[in-house]
Amino acid sequence: MEPAQNAHVLLYPEGMIKLNGSAGEIMKRCDGVRTLTEITADLERAFATTGLGNEVAAFVAMALQNKWLEVRS
């Protein structure tokens, strides 16, 4: 959380992205250890909801495409 922005921000060589609340919550959980399924389950528990799988997968795919995340083996 970036207090001055009152939002989560992603800094990368080409600039800065201000993330909305949902994106920030997903990115916080992308720790290189948890699977997409585990991240989704954690979000569903944290927000007392279900059915977030497609939205989480779509955001992570977009983040990978934009090189905000990378997959390491």
Strand-helix topology:
Layout: E1 8-12, E2 15-19, H1 21-29, H2 36-46, H3 53-65
Antiparallel strand pairs: 1-2
Helix pairs in contact: 2-3
Low-pLDDT windows of residues: none
Any idea what the shape is? globular
Number of spatially distinct domains = 1
Cα Rg:
12 Å
- Overall pLDDT confidence: 91
Strand line-up in the sheet with most strands: 1-2
> What is the count of β-strands?
2
What is the beta-strand fraction?
Answer: 5-15%
Task: Please state the structural category.
Answer: alpha+beta
Describe the biggest sheet?
A: 2 strands, antiparallel
- Tally of helical runs: 3
Task: Determine the N-to-C terminus distance.
Answer: 28 Å
Bin the helical content. Answer: 40-55%
Order of SSEs: EEHHH
Keyword list:
73 residues; alpha+beta; two-stranded antiparallel sheet; 2 strands; globular
Would you summarize the structure shown here?
The chain is α+β, with helices and mostly antiparallel strands. 45% of the residues lie in helices and 14% in strands.
